[in-house]
Amino acid sequence: MRLFTALALPDKLAHRLAALGTGNSGLRPMTAEQLHVTLVFIGEVNPRDLTPIEDALTLVEPPPLELEAQGLFDSRSGALGLLVKPSVELLGLQRKIHQALAQIDGLRLERRRYKPHLTLARYRSQQPPQLGQWVAEQQRLSYHWRVDRFGLYSSQLHPEGARYRLEAEFCRPPSLRPRRRST
Description:
The chain is of the alpha+beta class. It has a single domain (about 1-175), classed as Cyclic phosphodiesterase (Cyclic Phosphodiesterase, Chain: A), CATH 3.90.1140. The protein has four helices and nine strands; from the N terminus they run βαββαββαβαβββ. The protein has a five-stranded antiparallel beta sheet. Strands 3-1-8-9 form a four-stranded antiparallel beta sheet, covered by helices on one side. The termini are far apart.
């Protein structure tokens, strides 16, 4: 079982971002269901290890996050992404999740520097024509959303792209959520 933790997007924003890549031939846009901000890639694990992973993640309380994404980038390795501003709260949540998972024997987590982003589309071996110009035209677009939870997802690779399944969701306990004033 292939696992990762991530932040989901609100449905309306996910559909809007999924539509970005549809006008460019040669791109294989991610579907709205595939869009997420990865926090920690866990990798292949035995399904029996799912419970210890979930137990470790219940100790992480996600703060309310105000996320901002702006700035398309072409990885030159076949992915087109959107950068997510690395706020102190976002980086702190990612670090806490990584630390909680690192306590589990047998997990080998990625050690590379965390770069929050959304993968919007993929392309085969060669950059599609006009991609550079299209990316330049999209640079000024900015997206904002709020998140108060993160998920543990499994991933299954298929010829048409990865399929993700939410295995567990972790949110702030009700007593820690901000109270709304009644009007």
